[in-house]
């Protein structure tokens, strides 16, 4: 089975908490803070792997977690970092944020990697908070949570050549003849339910990858038939070989077929007009092809479109077609960009600014940094509470509250906790 879209949930590991510890040794009467930092959480990393061909594995397992960092220990020992988790995906996988639908990364080179969820930062131990005026801090920082997100993995094949055309025109047979691929072949529509890849070798250091793109019928751009499931795979190809049934054996007009298929391509993305197309007039071993060949050439050759008479069954004209494809590829630069994605730098980058506002007569302070500060504050410890107050002043939160009209003795709600204001 070929799976080219998968939705998964990833969550990086939480950073370890900093430790509160004291140095207590026989000949060190003054002791001192001795708590170490927590380890950082493990990240979730995507890596493009040539050995992976589908997204099948992600159909059965949908959630992936990085390892949490260990808490800090006494003697200023750091906690162990959490292990990263590496997820292998096929080369050509685009990573999208499920919430926005925007692309985050495009892994189109073997070995290319991307950190999709960064591990949390380890909290500082109490040894890091010692100063000349605060020699015995009785508090430490908690580790920060790891990033988490729902993502969509979407595979867009990396093939040099795409075989396009109506069902049953002989695309799969042609692929089986020119490569070692063994696609399912039968005389009925939609035999091919997945894109098939084959490597074509025509000489020393002369080879290219061909993809049989199924599902293209009238209305495909609107989702008819297999529609968008496979149109995405056309985007990365450098040359399109348009296979026509030159015998008219299906009762269709091959010239009309050409225009109908192209109309679907161009409705999907107008940029597909820029792709070079070569016509492979197939089934010329059938006598009825004689009249159609002349009409096909008369229609397309004046437009500068090359027409090659072939028979995938008898191999007639196959070598000439392959060399024409190779010569065309040699003058077209490799470009695996796609057309329809809006890329973003990092959807998880959030503003760390604190929100200070007044609502229904209440003074409110919120924000991720403030929430983290709250978690690391020991309210019954004088040094810890003083550090909390000093940090609020340094961040300008006290000044903003005064601008909003707060007075001595008024209540202020910080991350849901009520405090009495004193300046």
UniProtKB/TrEMBL annotation:
<comment type="subunit">
    <text>Monomer.</text>
</comment>
<dbReference type="InterPro" id="IPR006074">
    <property type="entry name" value="GTP1-OBG_CS"/>
</dbReference>
<feature type="binding site">
    <location>
        <begin position="311"/>
        <end position="313"/>
    </location>
    <ligand>
        <name>GTP</name>
    </ligand>
</feature>
<dbReference type="InterPro" id="IPR006073">
    <property type="entry name" value="GTP-bd"/>
</dbReference>
<feature type="binding site">
    <location>
        <position position="172"/>
    </location>
    <ligand>
        <name>Mg(2+)</name>
    </ligand>
</feature>
<dbReference type="InterPro" id="IPR027417">
    <property type="entry name" value="P-loop_NTPase"/>
</dbReference>
<feature type="binding site">
    <location>
        <begin position="282"/>
        <end position="285"/>
    </location>
    <ligand>
        <name>GTP</name>
    </ligand>
</feature>
<dbReference type="InterPro" id="IPR006169">
    <property type="entry name" value="GTP1_OBG_dom"/>
</dbReference>
<dbReference type="InterPro" id="IPR036346">
    <property type="entry name" value="GTP-bd_prot_GTP1/OBG_C_sf"/>
</dbReference>
<keyword id="KW-0378">Hydrolase</keyword>
<dbReference type="GO" id="GO:0003924">
    <property type="term" value="F:GTPase activity"/>
</dbReference>
<dbReference type="InterPro" id="IPR031167">
    <property type="entry name" value="G_OBG"/>
</dbReference>
<comment type="function">
    <text>An essential GTPase which binds GTP, GDP and possibly (p)ppGpp with moderate affinity, with high nucleotide exchange rates and a fairly low GTP hydrolysis rate. Plays a role in control of the cell cycle, stress response, ribosome biogenesis and in those bacteria that undergo differentiation, in morphogenesis control.</text>
</comment>
<comment type="similarity">
    <text>Belongs to the TRAFAC class OBG-HflX-like GTPase superfamily. OBG GTPase family.</text>
</comment>
<dbReference type="Pfam" id="PF01926">
    <property type="entry name" value="MMR_HSR1"/>
</dbReference>
<dbReference type="GO" id="GO:0042254">
    <property type="term" value="P:ribosome biogenesis"/>
</dbReference>
<feature type="binding site">
    <location>
        <begin position="190"/>
        <end position="194"/>
    </location>
    <ligand>
        <name>GTP</name>
    </ligand>
</feature>
<keyword id="KW-0963">Cytoplasm</keyword>
<dbReference type="Pfam" id="PF01018">
    <property type="entry name" value="GTP1_OBG"/>
</dbReference>
<keyword id="KW-0547">Nucleotide-binding</keyword>
<keyword id="KW-0342">GTP-binding</keyword>
<feature type="domain" description="Obg">
    <location>
        <begin position="1"/>
        <end position="158"/>
    </location>
</feature>
<protein>
    <recommendedName>
        <fullName>GTPase Obg</fullName>
        <ecNumber>3.6.5.-</ecNumber>
    </recommendedName>
</protein>
<dbReference type="InterPro" id="IPR015349">
    <property type="entry name" value="OCT_dom"/>
</dbReference>
<dbReference type="Pfam" id="PF09269">
    <property type="entry name" value="DUF1967"/>
</dbReference>
<dbReference type="GO" id="GO:0000287">
    <property type="term" value="F:magnesium ion binding"/>
</dbReference>
<dbReference type="GO" id="GO:0005737">
    <property type="term" value="C:cytoplasm"/>
</dbReference>
<dbReference type="GO" id="GO:0005525">
    <property type="term" value="F:GTP binding"/>
</dbReference>
<keyword id="KW-0460">Magnesium</keyword>
<dbReference type="InterPro" id="IPR045086">
    <property type="entry name" value="OBG_GTPase"/>
</dbReference>
<feature type="domain" description="OCT">
    <location>
        <begin position="345"/>
        <end position="423"/>
    </location>
</feature>
<dbReference type="InterPro" id="IPR014100">
    <property type="entry name" value="GTP-bd_Obg/CgtA"/>
</dbReference>
<dbReference type="InterPro" id="IPR036726">
    <property type="entry name" value="GTP1_OBG_dom_sf"/>
</dbReference>
<feature type="binding site">
    <location>
        <begin position="165"/>
        <end position="172"/>
    </location>
    <ligand>
        <name>GTP</name>
    </ligand>
</feature>
<feature type="domain" description="OBG-type G">
    <location>
        <begin position="159"/>
        <end position="330"/>
    </location>
</feature>
<feature type="binding site">
    <location>
        <position position="192"/>
    </location>
    <ligand>
        <name>Mg(2+)</name>
    </ligand>
</feature>
<keyword id="KW-0479">Metal-binding</keyword>
<feature type="binding site">
    <location>
        <begin position="212"/>
        <end position="215"/>
    </location>
    <ligand>
        <name>GTP</name>
    </ligand>
</feature>
């Amino acid at each position: 089975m070929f799976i080219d879209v998968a939705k998964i949930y990833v969550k990086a590991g939480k950073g370890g908490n900093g430790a509160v510890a004291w140095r207590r040794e026989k000949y060190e009467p003054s002791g001192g803070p001795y708590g170490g930092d927590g380890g950082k959480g493990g990240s979730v990393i995507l890596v493009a792997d040539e050995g992976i061909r589908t997204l099948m594995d992600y159909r059965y397992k949908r959630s992936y977690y990085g390892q949490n960092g260990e808490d800090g220990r006494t003697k200023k020992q750091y906690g162990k970092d959490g292990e990263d988790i590496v997820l292998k995906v096929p080369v050509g996988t685009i990573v999208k944020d499920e919430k926005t639908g925007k692309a985050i990364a495009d892994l189109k080179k073997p070995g290319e990697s991307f950190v999709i969820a960064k591990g949390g930062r380890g909290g500082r131990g109490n040894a890091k908070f010692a100063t000349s005026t605060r020699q015995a801090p009785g508090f430490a920082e908690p580790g920060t949570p790891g990033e988490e997100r729902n993502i969509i993995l979407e595979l867009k094949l990396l093939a040099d050549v795409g075989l396009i055309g109506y069902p049953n025109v002989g695309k799969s047979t042609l692929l089986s003849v020119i490569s070692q691929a063994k696609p399912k072949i039968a005389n009925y529509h939609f035999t091919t339910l997945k894109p098939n890849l084959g490597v074509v070798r025509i000489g020393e250091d002369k080879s290219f990858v061909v993809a049989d793109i199924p599902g293209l019928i009238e209305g495909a751009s609107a989702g008819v038939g297999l529609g968008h499931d496979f149109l995405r795979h056309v985007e990365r190809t450098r040359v399109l070989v348009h296979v026509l049934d030159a015998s008219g054996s299906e009762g269709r007009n091959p010239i009309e077929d050409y225009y109908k298929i192209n109309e679907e391509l161009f409705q999907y993305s107008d940029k597909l007009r820029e792709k070079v197309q070569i016509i492979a007039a197939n089934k010329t071993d059938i006598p009825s092809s004689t009249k159609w060949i002349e009409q096909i050439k008369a229609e397309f050759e004046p437009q500068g479109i090359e027409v090659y008479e072939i028979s995938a069954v008898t191999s007639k004209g196959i070598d000439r077609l392959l060399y024409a494809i190779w010569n065309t590829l040699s003058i077209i630069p490799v470009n695996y960009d796609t057309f329809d994605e809006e890329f973003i730098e990092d959807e998880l980058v959030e503003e760390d600014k604190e929100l200070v506002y007044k609502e229904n007569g209440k003074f409110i302070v919120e924000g991720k940094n403030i929430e983290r500060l709250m978690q690391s504050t020991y309210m019954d410890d004088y040094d810890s509470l003083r550090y909390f107050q000093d940090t609020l002043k340094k961040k300008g939160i006290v000044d903003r509250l005064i601008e909003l009209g707060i007075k001595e003795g008024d209540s202020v709600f910080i991350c849901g906790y009520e405090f009495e204001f004193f300046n």
